[in-house]
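in:
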């Protein structure tokens, strides 16, 4: 049932985003958002893009492709070159929907505040370490929000997101998190059937993101350490959270969705086995953990970045009356306890879930409906993945309640191009790597 030659749509995430950016390339009024809708003389929904990399450009492409009356009016990024390439690509594709003159293209660590102020809806797509403060600011300013996963990289960040999520609900702000399987037809149909009891009580499962890994950015001459880490952000936990958080969170979120709960404890193991050079920062290249739920169910979670090995990106679950197989390539198959197939999702005619996220968000904003409050469950699934990292780095069984109290923030004490991140290379250029039994995570 696993079509490994047609890898999970989400396994192609960055390829899709890059392709969108390549093929992609209103009038700003004194304007503010209000609870449940937007304020604009011409009824145009004004968008600000915070983070102009491939993912941000892809998210803006999708937002501007909705049927809503939208315009991109502000952009923010730390890097001028990312801003320039994103603006060019979007302007070439959406000539009538991109109105971002130079004075509304903000550069720097504080650029997000200026761009958010000019919009009704903000797209938060920077590296995830910045997400909590950006989300908090967008909520404070009363904006509707699309934010990419993961929403934080450590316990202090998660607490910050959870607090802002409560405020967003009180203000009736729509918040969509980029865990796009939640907006994918095969998952929605299968989960409805599971929650209706078709395979009984879920007692076990397996979720995977095993692939060959992602890009690497080489260190360039004259870069400060801060710039190097931000350019090569995937390999530093303060920016990425490790690939169990940045990528595998998709599959972990499905485990929590299927269970309708979050694990009470996590234990597991991980290491750097294949990806060991100085270009790979501090993160592991494999994690294997067990998610233990309050009812006794245990779901196995595995992710790895090994080149030249079998890929697998999917989810399976076992219940007292049957089992289910799911994948991002639009597959969903349910069997009863005898092995008889009782449901198979049609492979064709499925909408692109990345686009569906934006279609549904902007439709709700257009209708002045408060329909989406994804931030809390997005944060809790991200925190499940963070606890998985805590478990593999330390070699300990980590309890949810203990982990949520952790005070060890990964963020630098200061954000500037000359500031020093908390993790630095040694004289040979190698970064310290977590060591189970020695590394303390809480």
């Amino acid at each position: 049932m696993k079509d490994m030659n047609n890898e999970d749509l989400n396994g192609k995430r960055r390829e899709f985003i890059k392709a969108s950016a390549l093929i992609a390339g209103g009038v700003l009024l004194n304007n503010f958002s209000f609870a449940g809708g937007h304020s604009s003389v011409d009824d145009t929904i004004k968008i600000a893009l915070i983070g102009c990399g491939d993912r941000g450009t892809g998210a803006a492409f999708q937002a501007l492709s909705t049927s809503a009356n939208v315009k991109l009016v502000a952009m923010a990024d730390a890097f001028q070159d990312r801003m320039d390439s994103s603006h060019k690509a979007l302007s070439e594709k959406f000539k009538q929907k991109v109105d971002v003159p130079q004075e509304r293209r903000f550069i720097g660590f504080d650029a997000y505040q200026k761009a958010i102020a000019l919009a009704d809806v903000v797209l938060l797509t920077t590296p995830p370490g910045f997400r909590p403060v950006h989300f908090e600011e967008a909520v404070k300013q009363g904006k509707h929000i699309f934010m990419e996963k993961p929403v934080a990289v450590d316990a202090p960040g998660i607490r910050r997101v959870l607090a802002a999520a409560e405020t967003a609900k009180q203000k009736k702000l729509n918040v969509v998190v980029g865990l796009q399987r939640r907006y994918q037809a095969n998952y929605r149909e299968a989960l409805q059937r599971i929650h209706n009891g078709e395979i009984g009580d879920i007692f076990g499962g397996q979720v995977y993101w095993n692939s060959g890994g992602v890009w690497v950015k080489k260190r360039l001459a004259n870069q400060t350490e801060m710039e190097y880490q931000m350019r090569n952000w995937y390999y530093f936990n303060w920016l990425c959270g490790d690939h169990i958080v940045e990528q595998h969170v998709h599959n972990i979120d499905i485990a929590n969705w299927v269970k309708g709960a979050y694990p009470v404890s996590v234990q597991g193991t991980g290491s750097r086995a294949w990806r060991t050079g100085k270009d790979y920062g501090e993160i592991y290249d494999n994690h294997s953990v067990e998610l233990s739920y309050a009812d006794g169910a245990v779901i196995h979670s595995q992710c790895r970045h090994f080149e030249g090995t079998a890929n697998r990106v999917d989810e399976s679950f076992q219940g007292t009356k049957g089992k289910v197989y799911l994948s991002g390539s639009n597959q969903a198959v349910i069997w009863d306890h005898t092995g008889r197939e009782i449901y198979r999702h049609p492979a064709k005619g499925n909408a692109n879930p990345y686009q569906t996220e934006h279609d549904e968000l902007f439709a709700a904003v257009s209708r002045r409906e408060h329909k989406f409050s994804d931030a809390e469950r997005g944060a809790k699934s991200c925190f499940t993945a963070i606890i998985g990292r805590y478990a593999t780095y330390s070699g300990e069984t980590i309890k949810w309640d203990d982990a949520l109290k952790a005070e060890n923030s990964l963020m630098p004490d200061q954000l500037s191009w000359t500031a020093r991140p908390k993790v630095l290379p040694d004289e040979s250029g190698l970064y310290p790597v977590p060591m189970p039994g020695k590394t303390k995570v809480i």
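note: Residues 425 and 431 are 4 Å apart (CA to CA).
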